[in-house]
Amino acid sequence: MKAMILAAGRGERMRPLTDHTPKPLLRVAGKALIEYGLENLAKAGFTEIVVNVAYLGRQIKEHCGNGSRWRLSIQYADEGEQALETAGGIANALPLLGDKPFLVVNADVLSDYPLASLREKSVDLAHLVLIDNPPHHSLGDFCLNENGLVGVNGGPKLTFSGMGVYHPDLFAGVRAGQALKLRPVLEQAMQNGRVGGEYFDGSWLDIGTPARLREVSENRGFFHTADMSGQ
């Protein structure tokens, strides 16, 4: 299974830190954010990685190179200066991802979720990892029913972790070069009962603002209590 790291975002909420540095290269506990994702994917047995880039993307390419230092093979899906949002960015990268289900993770999420387990999941159009709602996203995103299907309604809301496995067919309706968020694409598939999911209660951090970046950088305990290996 191939894997994709979403790294093309402008990082508006991180300004002014992202005025000259792309968000995936901001440092947490002495290491660039994207490096945690690459290390976790490598330890979980993934070898072929696609990274989408846009704003200041050259810096990411220069920092990560071909991935050999992590024993990975990295290819880049360059969206130019204007990012295509999540669904548009994934659709743009499909020629590099192939015709089988693939894993997608956000560059700004740190977690000890066992990524290797996703290689064995049965996937229709999508399989999402859901978590408890963090303070900054208290209303949540989707519901997970007892049959393992994910929908917009039908129970308490959970938050989408930014980790999911997708079949290329999920993006069949996305036009080439179209900027499109992921949620409407998922919701359409949910209406047809084609999105599965699971609940994860382990360590998870979304490094979305300077305050959260500062908090996790100062709280080194997270890196001691959470196994960041992704196995």
From TrEMBL:
Keywords: Nucleotidyltransferase, Transferase
InterPro entries: GlmU-like, MurU, NTP_transferase_dom, Nucleotide-diphossugar_trans
Gene3D superfamilies attached to this UniProt entry: Spore Coat Polysaccharide Biosynthesis Protein SpsA, Chain A
Superkingdom of the organism of origin: Bacteria
The keyword Cell membrane is assigned to this record: no
CDD domains registered for this protein in UniProt: NTP_transferase_like_1 (cd06422)
A Pfam entry, by short name: NTP_transferase
Keyword set includes Ribonucleoprotein: no
Domain Nucleotidyl transferase stretches: 2-128
NCBIfam families: NAMPUrTaseMurU
Name the UniProt record assigns to this protein: Nucleotidyltransferase family protein
Organism: Methylomonas subterranea
